[in-house]
Amino acid sequence: MDRANHSVVSEFVFLGLSNSWEIQLVLFVFSSMFYVASMMGNSLIVLTVTSDPHLHSPMYFLLANLSFTDLGISSVISPKTMYDLLRNSKVISFGGCIAQIFFIHVTGGVEMVLLIAMAFDRYVAICKPLHYFTIMGPKMCIFLQIAAWIIGLTHSVIQLVSVRKLPFCGPNVIDSFYCDLPRLIKLACIDTYRLEFMVTANSGFISLGSFFILIISYVFILTTAWKHSSGGSSKALSTLSTHIMVMILFFGPCIFLYTWPHPSSHLDKFLAFFDAVLTPFLNPVIYTFRNKEMKMAMRRVCSQLIVNRRIS
Question: N or C: which terminus of the chain has fewer CB atoms within 10 Å of its end residue's CB?
């Protein structure tokens, strides 16, 4: 049966983050600052890696891709959230809700694969240093990039195939500030137990499984680096700690949002807000402050931009 014949809901209403106008104003200022900082920081990383020959290596290639994905993650939720914080009526169309879910899961899937790829890159660099540039050649980097987008798109399409057929015949209030599957599915007019299990398996278990695989991988890499401790290894340990922090920031909220059996609305909103607004900002901050090579490259790029502006 066609969706139009049994689905009468044309838009959804968000309850938002708070009913207090003062709190909404504070959240607007807060999210605006971090959104702008996130866009500038991630854009600067992409620009720096692409323009500085010293950073044309597999690790920085993957980092630039991660920053590009963070630009997408920031833009999927934050602009709509900031707009709604200044409005009493927080509404999104049915098509807009589906589009938001699609892009959330595409960018989330891509970032998950990129984090695994970055762990593999560090494994090769530390455990097989003599074969690093043979294994992590240009073809492998392009393959990892393409694989990330294919997996992200496939993951998102699988999530949406069943949702497009769900009948929404009355309730249209979502107790959140953005569209995502767990809360949207609960509004359907049929028993959605199987679909909820599928969403949990697709998003929650994949996130949890990937997280544990990464934890085991980094424990193995750290053990190897510790056994060969030296000046170079201390630099490797610093790089690894950066990767682990970013991994925890990304997977922590995802695992809780999709696998916790009895979610708390307020905690869900806090974690989702943190994941959408703060995580894309913290990634470039962490990678920049803990990487001298990146800081030096950014200074060179910024100096060049200033010189070019003066000349023009």
Answer: C
Q: Rounded to whole angstroms, how far apart are CA atoms 247 and 216?
A: 13
**Cβ neighbours, 10 Å, residue 186:** 12
d(CA 250, CA 207): 10
Contacts of 73 (CB under 8 A, 6+ apart): 104, 107, 108, 111, 276, 279, 280
Q: Which residues, at least 6 apart from 141, have a Cβ–Cβ distance to it below 8 Å?
A: 58, 61, 62
Token pair for 176: 């959140």
| Of 21, 2, 20, 44, nearest in space to 304 by CA | 44
Three-state SS for 153?
A: helix
Nearest alpha-carbon partner for 273 in 180, 172, 158: 180
- pTM metric for this prediction: 0.85
Tokens of 33: 């600052």
* C-alpha span between 23 and 266 (Å, rounded): 14
- pLDDT, one tens digit per residue, over 231-263 is 555 666 666 777 788 888 888 888 777 776 555
Per the listing, tokens 């030296």 go with 230
3-state SS class at 91: strand
With tokens 């085991």, the residue in question is: 216
pLDDT in tens, 2-12: 444 445 778 89
Q: CA distances (Å), 176 to each of 78, 120, 197, 239, in order?
A: 13, 36, 21, 36
